[in-house]
Amino acid sequence: MKKTILTTLLATGLMATGAQADEAIELKVLGQPSATGLIMQEKEKPFFETLAERTGLPLAVNFKPLDSTGIKDVEELRTLKSGLFDVVSLRFSQVSRDEPTILGLDLVGMNPTYEAGRETVDAFGSVVDARLQERFNTKLLGVWPFGPQVLFCNAPIEKLADIKGLKVRVYDQNLAAVVESAGGIPVPLSFGEVHQSLALGVVDCAITGPSSANSAGWPEVTTHVLPLAFQMAINGYGINLDTWNRLSVTQQKTLETAFAELTDDIWEYSEELFEDAKRCNVGESPCDYNKSFNLTEVPVTEQDIAMVRDAVREISYPTWAEICDKSNPECSSQWRAALGEKLGF
């Protein structure tokens, strides 16, 4: 039915401007790293490989995972702005140094559940989109989560406070500030570096989603997992505006519809993977999508929950707002207007 609707949209006729119906539209796509696991392998890659058939558009899609290109995740916005790729699966936390406004979608403590994450995206996503269009010649085509980010350690811990003195892998400045407040030593590392760093003792702990950790083999080099949600790991698809503007209005609408279907699918799949990987990592059943390991699950205490929840007001928002307002003077005021009431500001 969805494919029929899309095909019908296309058949209604293309606008005179933009790419014509018989013109081949080349899309160079930079995807998530293969090592991040099943969302990339089962949803993202198949979507782009079948996008022409799915939409009826005359697309020639060349899809490459990030870790096959030599491009670093922190360079994705610059890569997209330059036109080297037409579409990029943006790792929001990693590119937030280039555009801090992005991190307002996923401050530590503000998205403890999938429902909260969707509400945040609905409220603040348009602000991020406008900023990316202005500064990086990039339009957002969809936003989705890897899922709650939790703590893995190769040292015995019984609560969050036990990371005091331990080196903890982090992926953005906001998370680093919270880890530091708990007494940990934040160490910025790209995802692909973490497994070896844990094995060699470069870091003692690391934070990511249960399914991504499972796919990357983190339970092979860790012993304990604390399933406390720090962030939701929000990501999104960006398209270069020059590429976008070469499309007709009808083609644009068709592409937007396809990406909306993809991101809705990923939201649902991400939650299924999260619950499955939580069980698999500690040797519980059912374990349908991920590998079974035997980590020790550390009970989440009320004190742990309160610390992360309160981090929004006490640490993550003030830390982020100061940085973001330096590059975008309206950053924190727009965030408070969109989300402040919901979060008690």
UniProtKB/TrEMBL annotation:
Organism whose genome encodes this protein: Marinobacterium nitratireducens
InterPro entries: DctP_fam, TRAP_DctP_sf
GO biological-process terms attached to the record: transmembrane transport
Record-linked Gene3D superfamilies: Bacterial extracellular solute-binding protein, family 7 (3.40.190.170)
Signal peptide: 1-21
Pfam families hit by this protein: DctP
Key words, A-Z: Signal
Chain ranges passing through the membrane: none
Protein name: ABC transporter substrate-binding protein
